Fold:
Amino acid sequence: MFKTILIALDGSPVSFRALEMGMEMAKKFDSKIVATSIVNVDNLPVNVGVDYMPDLVHDVKKQNNQILRTAERQLVNSKMFYEIVSREGDPKSLIAKVIPDNINADLIIMGKTGKGMMTKIFMGSVARYVSENSELPVLLVN
Structure:
């Protein structure tokens, strides 16, 4: 039923629950998992100052890599067929359309809520955007 499952991670506990659920579904349907985490450098605070921006971008990328390494450890231990995808840009469009099109995804799984309430207030929920704009089924995990 689902050949390729895209799982979006942001480092929050609920995103790792989405990974666990995706792994269960992948076992059931013999699916490939594609785990992704997006570096959104456009969303960094502008009041940091130009001098500190390269360090901040480096820290965000480092945190993103850590999220994906944590996911990969779980996937390696499960002996499932998987791929890790890291991208930079707008997580809404990348998760809803771009990455699913590139990997021929059949399903998107992600956490219902992410890391930051302030981000949600100012940018809107990525999960909501994806669920409303993706052409694929979207499973939101609490």
Notes: The radius of gyration is 15 Å. The mean pLDDT is 88.
